[in-house]
Fold these 2 entries.
Entry 1:
Amino acid sequence: MDPGLRRDDDVVGFARIPNPESRIPASMITFDKVSKRYGPNHEALTEVSFEIGAGEMVFVTGHSGAGKSTLLKLIGLVERPTRGQIAVNHRQLARVKRRGIPDVRRGIGMVFQDHRLLTDRTVFDNIALPLIIAGTTREDIGKRVRAALDKVGLLAKEKESPQTLSAGEQQRVGIARAIVAKPPVIIADEPTGNLDPQLSAEIMHLFAEFGAVGTTVLIASHDLNIVKRLNKRVLVLDHGKLIDDFRPSA
Ligand code: ADP
């Protein structure tokens, strides 16, 4: 290990290096002292601050109930913060009114643990959905859906129903749907929660490829084995507080 690096095994056992702001390219996601309270007494997030740059791939981890999903919901405007400011893709979310929410969401690809595919439509039609909503022409839809299917390795499955696919393939379709409109930001909530370790690793490597081409990727996962193996920046939540923010060593 580089003698300049500080060992810190207390949270996830990485060798750590400092994470100075100068290394972060133009910020794509900024949290400034963000708190979220559900009901009068339950604070799910407390004064959380961080910045994620364009093209970064970052994990948010922590125990069940730590606030990971809440953090992602705030980015996707599913929930609003009680205090603090959030900016996504250079927009202050506090200024986004209800009718502006679809426009913000078009810039964010969302992936869920249960992938939320429509079982009465083909794989192609599921992936096409965000493009249809955005008013993309039919010709472009065909090109883009096939490009997305190609990226996730499922070109041969476009006519199938999602129900006929394996769990790993279904999650790949969910990812293709999230990237088909080429959003600058992808957020994923426990995307490997239902998959075995081998499939989980494949899915995470897929996300890493999107990060490598400039997309900002934020993934909530409590699976420390996978998080460690990917060797990316990690935000650690504990009872709603951001208790660590580090990159593992090279
Ligand atoms: P995680 O994703 O890390 O498991 P969550 O963000 O789902 O954590 O939850 C954080 C805390 O907020 C938990 O205590 C949870 O019970 C609570 N919580 C989450 N959503 C709601 C809600 N809609 N209403 C009330 N409490 C909630």
Entry 2:
Amino acid sequence: PLAFLNDPSLLKTDALIDGQWVQGDSRFDVDDPATGLKLADVPNLGAADAERAVRAANAAWPAWRAKTAKQRHAILLKWYELLMAHSEDLARIMTAEQGKPFAEAKGEVGYAASFVEWFAEEAKRANGETLPQFDSTRRLMVLKQPVGVCAAITPWNFPLAMITRKVAPALAAGCPVVIKPAELTPLTALAAAELAVRAGIPAGVLNVITADSANSIAVGKLLCASDVVRHLSFTGSTEVGRILMAQSAPTVKKISLELGGNAPFIVFDDADIDSAVEGAIASKYRNAGQTCVCANRIYVQDGVYEQFVQKFAARVQALTVGNGFEDGVVQGPLIEPAALDKVQRHLDDALAKGGRVVAGGARLEGQFFQPTVVADANADMLCAREETFGPFAPVFRFQTEQQAIDAANDTEFGLASYFYSRDVGRIFRVAEALEYGMVGINAGVIASEHVPFGGVKQSGLGREGSHHGMDDYLELKYLCLGDI
Ligand code: ADP
């Protein structure tokens, strides 16, 4: 699939350190999850290379922070324009290595680029403050300054957007970055880095360290232990997030974490059922269920339960599964065999505990799984507690509003939640009661560059996107000027 790029030079297969493309001593393969075929190989770098990148970033920091906000704005805007101009190629690379349908990949490129555009603009608005003095001989001010070298460890499910959402605010704030992309999807990251170079981001300001899963652990340790790295941003599993947080304790590093979810999707009796069905489809089956904000548990009130299940199952059965490059395909392969195993485990467990398959229910040849719906789900099932991260939707039944709220909140996670209702009182009661960082009300897809994305409880720390998204990359410095 990568033979047909409009601009073949976007297929970068080397890492980027200090403005130099680095081959590395050893390499690892990047495969197409739809076919199992090798696409390319990339450098398998280790701690020493990461150290070199951190030093290069630190050396590049003074000149980068010394640029005016408007100069950084102009470079970021150029990067945004290049990402958009090459969106077809970027989407092609993404579908090839990640598997999502090509139209969805193009959507992600636009979404990813929107963070660069947004933070290019925000660069100019990192305003400080002047404060009322507590004594007439003094004047008080607050400066905002870049934190320093930032590290970003990113996942495979959004190979581009999870990079730009971290890197764009860091760069806008005046920080250099070291990116460690997911080992399953490094090619999208490298293509974006090539465009960053073309946009004029100076050597050392943006570095990309590729590493396989074993070396990613070593690179992660180095980045956490480094006292030059002042901020670590991670998107991925809660399990790895906890490890990185612990590893960052000795250097008291600032951290932003966007971790797992266990999103409830609640449909009340008074909902518009057709709209709820469409919302559930979009929320659950996007990226084959492999997003941290995908509906994981669908709760439907007794009075509309059978109606919802029937309509939902019919829509799910009509979803076309296949290679993301084929026309009409809306669900691609899962990322790796372990992902299929997890879906199967959740399905088997649900069936053993009284679940009823109403759509799909089978693994297909290769790394594909039928979009699946199981009715009569209950709280004892694994899928009630764990994030499935695949195309499997359990539908639970509830009677009262309070039962739905209690069930929704009965988890250590708190990222996205959704509910459907047309009752204005209920909308406020439920929205306020859900212990989640984000609530979609009569909406199944809610992310955008200008809203604060993030979770509470064990779903993470900090918010990405919006005018709050630069806060993590800026230090406040209080100045007290006396003897006026
Ligand atoms: P997922 O469950 O989405 O695969 P992971 O949390 O396993 O997410 O991985 C997300 C990112 O974290 C990837 O870039 C991966 O290489 C990296 N990673 C995984 N384990 C570690 C670790 N122990 N230290 C540093 N990075 C890690």
